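S.,

Sequence below, as promised.
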Amino acid sequence: MSAGSIQIFLSYAGADAFEASLLQYAVESLLVDMGAKVWTYQRDQSRDQQTIAFDIKSRIHQSRALIFLVSPATIELGTTQWMEFAYADAFGIPIFVLLNHLTYNDLRARGKGVPPLLLQTKCNDATTWPDVIQELRSRLMNAPINLNEAP
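The prediction came back faster than expected:
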């Protein structure tokens, strides 16, 4: 990550890689003036990294925001995503939740397998992603610099 850039962590289930790549491109394109770089596992994770869990935790800690793309695949197989969500919460990183092929009522109805923290967080329908990016922009413009960012 270069000096002056803003890292945003995008958390998603592997089954949602296509949607995540589109979202990654959209966020980077719309926030290019801020130097935004969206970190994703598929594109940015070093293939020779032996401690992937540590690297992901570190990447979240260095991020100015986390976009959490939740889908039925997250509910079924999202152990890694739940850890990413928990790390962001623990580090005080702003979290922007996008529900993909899922509604808030679906989340509440599932109960089991959905962390209470997610149900207490503002969840946005994935179709509202442009509004979420605008909110993200606003938060980033008004947020203090994260001293934990890598130079």
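Helices lie at 17-30, 41-44, 52-61, 72-77, 79-91, 104-110, 116-119, 129-142.

Coffee later?
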